[in-house]
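To whoever is on call:

I kicked off a structure prediction for a single chain this morning and the downstream step that reads the tokens threw a length-mismatch warning. I double-checked the sequence; it's 69 residues and nothing unusual in it as far as I can see. Pasting both halves so you can look.
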Amino acid sequence: MVISRREMARAKVEKLKKGFSAFSETQEITELMERYIKEEKLNVHVDRTSLGCWFIPADGTEHETRPHS
């Protein structure tokens, strides 16, 4: 199965728009996400690590994860 990098980046940006964090392991996906984030004028914090990049909504709407009951 072939997964489009553009579709993957768009899907991650859609998660950001819904208030969830997203992670990118590759430079190509990171660059695409940054381009789409700029186009959409999203307020996002980017945390670059040696393993990849975390994109975190910066408007305080990130959803908390809770353990299942």
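Update from on-call: the warning came from a stale cache, not from the record. Cleared it. Sanity check on the structure: The chain has two helices and three strands.
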